[in-house]
Amino acid sequence: MSPTTIASQALSPWRRAVLKVGSNLLAADGGGLTTRYAEALAAFITASRAVGRQVVLVSSGAVAAGRAQLRAHAPFGSDLAARQALAALGQAPMIALWQSLSPRPVAQVLLTHDDLRNRRRYLNARATLRELLALDVLPVVNENDTVAVDELKLGDNDNLAAIVAALVDADLLLIASDIDALYSADPRLDASATPITRVDALTPEVLAMAGGSGSTVGTGGMRTKLEAAAKASAAGIPTALFSGRDPTAAGLLGEGQLRGTLFAAGRSRMQARKYWLRHAPAAPGRIHVDAGAVRALAGGRASLLPGGVLEVSGEFHRGDLVEIVDGAGRHVARGLSQYGVAEARRLAGKHSREIESLLGYSYGAEIVHRDDLATVADIETGESDT
Length: 386
Prior knowledge:
By secondary structure, the protein is of the alpha/beta class. The chain folds into 2 domains: 3-266, 3-Layer(aba) Sandwich (Carbamate kinase), CATH 3.40.1160.10; 273-385, PUA domain (Archaeosine Trna-guanine Transglycosylase, Chain: A, domain 4, Roll). The protein is 36% helix and 19% strand. Strand 15 and strand 16 (331-336) form a beta hairpin. Helix 6 (157-167) runs parallel beside helix 8 (222-234).
């Protein structure tokens, strides 16, 4: 079925998106990489930035680029070590391809499973990505194949993109594929297959459209795309699947239109975030704040700055979820601390501009950033989730 027969649909307004581009859209027929399909996607990223939107790119292609460079003068195997070597060799040309298509600087960010399950490294990765976006740099994320091993690998860049979308608090996950939508069956094998333009819930019936569990036969690797959509949905992020080989589809995205399949989010992004902050176990530590901080935090739109901290008690590390209480010990909020207990204690009552001089480094101006904070109203009533 031609992609032109799929009707376009409006996307909800978004401020930040993660765009995943697979190696099948970058690999050249004769080996190496090509800009054939990447040009339209890069143009979409540039156009988005021009209207104030931010895009984080998750790109495959390093192994294909490395294989092309090595083919001429050395043999290579197919085991994990060979793949890791090819990835190391191909990272530079893959980044160079995107830099050639971007008027902005491009930065490479390599992640592993360990980086994303360790809260401190998770926060470090998020802080880096946020800073790159603030600097008007295009982050290009890939799995760090050179150090990952089988039992620790994220597995594929579809799922990595979903994790990154949650990491950067994205409003939308975009998956550029070699197929233009989710179909009722594999359109390459079944002429009666029809495109599904919207999926409100990833039911077993929907998952079956991508082949059974563990199946190697799917609609263009659709199984991992549905897995990614499920991860994004759980984080309150919708997923848009479209053909990366159709420049018109990329152009429509810039106009707020999707020609493909939209996977709805299970709940709003803020609802998902607040739910996690409400129910996740907290570290045995507390941050005591003054009346001014209590008032500022009550609105749910302010971060906790060092100047509002009276004292710090208990034990916690950078990235831990901690309770925030007023001078009388009453709960005010809970959130992820940017600093460990010893650091927060040294910063209590100080101005944010003093952080680096006091510690010799800075993880940011906030003790707890507003995006990582749930107020007492969120915790006790859930009012901010409605």
